[in-house]
Amino acid sequence: MSQPVFASLLNASLSTVKQWEIGDKRPSGVSTRLLNILKKGIVMATGAQSVAVKVVGSNGQISIGKQFAGRQILIEEQEPGVWLLRTASVISDNEHWLHTSKASNDLKNALAWSMEHPASDAKLDQLFESLSRDDQ
Predict the structure, then answer these.
(1) Which stretches does DSSP call E strand in 1-136?
(2) Residue boundaries of the structural domains of the chain
């Protein structure tokens, strides 16, 4: 929805809506009540669990909550001005090899070996003696 249409819907001036969006001004009074009604209507119409109006800061950032801090978010532009945000697990290029069948088999073999050969400190004296001979 464009700013002029939104302003008309709320019976607010275009400059007021722009100030809301950039965070210079906050809605109050009747505008706040209309926004809450609109929000409830959007939740009911879309089946969304929650809807929030967020302001994009002057540096282009938006806060979606501390529970998402450090998480990767996939942003899909559905149409101009309409974005869908979803949490995502992204594998970096330098970690792709970890997800190959060879790496998976190697890991399974290593885990199987470790189960058959549990860690023990029973022969530490022999190990230290062997290591000290290798150093000489």
Answers:
(1) 72-79, 82-88
(2) 3-88, 93-135
